[in-house]
Write a structure and sequence with these properties.
- Its main location: other.
- It is found in: Bacterial flagellum; Secreted.
- GO terms for molecular function: structural molecule activity.
- It comes from Sulfurimicrobium lacus.
- About 50% of the residues lie in helices and about 15% in strands.
- By secondary structure, the chain is of the alpha+beta class.
- Among the domains are: about 170 residues, f41 fragment of flagellin, N-terminal domain (Up-down Bundle); about 110 residues, no CATH class.
- The strands form four sheets. The chain has a five-stranded antiparallel beta sheet.
- It is elongated, with a radius of gyration of 42 Å.
């Protein structure tokens, strides 16, 4: 069979090109350390590499998100710690204000100090995070959450939402808390009911915050607007003080006639039970309180269901009491303020504990993410990393193949009939 010279050239060049391509590809594998350079090298393996790479990239994004969440919660925790310290300082001032030796000027000085704390609290409540977003405005990160509409009155401009960040495939974490939950929606009094002295009282009676003996019984009561009325019979020696408990319609729940002497005799500091005694009509509100010292004839004390009171309102009421109050009225106001401040501090500590719990959870998720990252790296290595010993051997073989193809081509191209005749 005769083979034309052009065919010999084509076959030789084709062989050299194949060997060159194989050598170049092997060199690329060695230089990159990868056995899969294109999907054609291993379609199944390449698909698996793509899948694992995407999972790894997503895991890395979750790690970035977790870091951002930790930063945001860290800033909130710092702000809440400042609020807690401020409330404790205010509480100390309120206790000091109860010193009977303080005159009006001393109390006014304390009130001025508290006004500074009030503005400081407002500033903390309007704190921003590292991204310039307000921490306590709910979803409305660009809206200032709190604004003072008038002296002592603070409005909340945010919403009830909590901003969330995805920190794993199955977990979103809240990185903010609504300011209304932190600073405003706090029950006053003892958290169930609130006691207060009547504004027109002239005696020295001091009312306690009271305590709840049976929450279910208090919850079942329909009329939670009660008043304790005092009467003093000065025609006898010593004078006898009696009291009645009336509902919102001014009807005695003790079965009294509504006029002195009232059904129960008062003893300073003794428990005033909102439960029937002796021949009284049966009732049980599940709560009790006490009143100390000497209420005057006509003095009243109220017992009402607790309502939401903001930290700002509590602080402003305390300031007003220091500026205008005196004597027993001021003492009752201070007791009320201390009770409310305790509730405020408990709320802040509760939210702060929640923040700490979330930060702990993020730490756990980040640890799991780190383990996943190692697994992804190992899987990718198994799928695409090169066996260098085998690769070097293949590279050497390809080099020899190329050299053989080149040398054979040189020899073959020199063959012709004329060379044979010569």
């Amino acid at each position: 069979m005769r083979i034309s010279t052009s065919t010999l050239y084509d076959l030789g060049v084709s062989s050299i090109q194949k060997q060159s391509s194989a050598l170049v590809k092997q060199q690329q594998m060695v230089s990159t350390g990868r056995r899969i350079l294109t999907p054609a090298d291993d379609p199944v393996g390449a698909a698996r590499v793509l899948e694992v790479s995407q999972s790894k990239a997503l895991n890395q994004q979750y790690d970035v998100n977790a870091g951002s969440a930790t930063s945001s919660l860290g800033l909130e925790e710092t702000a809440l710690a400042s609020v807690g310290s401020l409330i404790q300082d205010v509480r100390t001032i309120a206790i000091n204000a109860g010193n009977p030796t303080l005159d009006h000027n001393n109390l006014a000085s304390l009130a001025t100090d508290l006004r500074g704390r009030y503005q400081e609290l407002l500033g903390i409540a309007n704190s921003t995070d590292g991204n310039g977003q307000y921490m306590f405005s709910g979803y409305k990160g660009s809206t200032q959450p709190f604004s003072e509409t008038s002296p002592g009155n603070v409005a909340y401009n945010g919403d009830q939402g909590q901003r969330l960040i995805q920190i794993s495939a199955s977990r979103q974490i809240a990185v903010s808390d609504a300011g209304s939950d932190v600073f405003q929606q706090i029950k006053n009094g003892n958290g169930t009911f609130v006691t207060a002295a009547g504004a027109g009282n002239t005696g020295t009676g001091l009312v306690s915050p009271g305590s709840v003996l049976d929450p279910a019984k208090w919850a079942a009561v329909t009329d939670k607007n009660l008043s304790i009325k005092f009467a003093v019979d000065s025609t006898v020696t010593p004078p006898v003080t009696t009291y009645d408990i009336v509902d919102s319609t001014n009807t005695s729940i003790l079965g009294g006639a509504g006029t002195p002497p009232y059904p129960r005799t008062y003893t300073s500091g003794s428990t005033i039970s909102l439960k029937s005694q002796g021949a009284e009509p049966p009732f049980d509100y599940g709560v009790e309180l006490s009143i100390e010292n000497a209420p005057a004839d006509g003095d009243t004390f109220s017992v009402k269901a607790s309502t939401n009171e903001s930290i700002f309102t509590t602080l402003n009421n305390l300031i007003t009491s220091l500026e205008t109050g005196s004597g027993t009225g001021l003492a009752n106001d201070l007791n009320t303020a201390l009770s409310n401040l305790d509730n405020d501090l408990n709320r802040v500590l509760t939210v702060r504990a929640s923040v700490g719990s979330r930060m702990k959870e993020i730490e756990s998720v980040k640890s799991t993410g780190g383990d996943l990252a190692l697994q992804y790296d190992q899987t990718l290595s198994d799928l695409q990393d090169l066996d260098y010993a085998k690769a070097i051997s293949d590279l050497t073989r390809n080099q020899l193949g190329l050299q053989a193809a080149q040398q054979s081509f040189v020899k073959i191209q020199g063959l012709s009939l004329f060379n044979y005749i010569n």
